[in-house]
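Deadline looming. Please check this record:
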Amino acid sequence: MRDRDAQPIGGIARRLAAILTARGIDPAAPITDPVEPIPALQAAQARIPARYQAAVADHPAVTAWVRAIAEAGRPGPEGAPGIAQGRSLLIVGTTGTGKTHQAYGAIRSLLIAGVRLRWKATTAADLYAELRPRPGHDGERELMDLARCPLLIIDDLGAAKNSEWTEEITMRLINRRYNEMLPTLITTNLGMVDLRQHIGDRVASRLTEMSDKVILDGPDRRRALAAERRRIAAA
């Protein structure tokens, strides 16, 4: 399977794809950067890591998910849609296949599409480090803020060291978002069998039901870019 091959997506996204196609809109077409500046996108750029500030969600299944989320948004001030209930997205792939690039590209695409968006992003390792009990820190409040956030990115799920405490934290976070049907973008290097062993059956079961799954494969892009830089330098 190539990196850009479309993956099976959920029923909502499939129905939206059919509607968009009937309207003459390609549901898999990337949402490209606008000619005119978008204030919400400009504000978000300060929160997006420098490496991903020009990220584009160009995988067909990720693009279809973006359009499904944008289409489902509730109208707000001046008619701009806001994040509503929706499917989550689980992006699976080996190291360097572009999972984080696609996740931040999805955020940028939603903002370009005019969606009013409150979002947070964290890695699994940073999540556990931030929530670990310590004097003067309200980890419970932080957990609830993440659980209620309209759109959450959890990068590298399964990469952090596992324990009963991390499994329980993950369960509480995912279960709250599962119950409220809040869209969550999750990336992982692990296949579903290994991920289930790492995060537990309860979390894996909810992720399976709440998420559309996208598989990215191909060579490690970081190594390919490093090799290209070495080739250019030697030329």
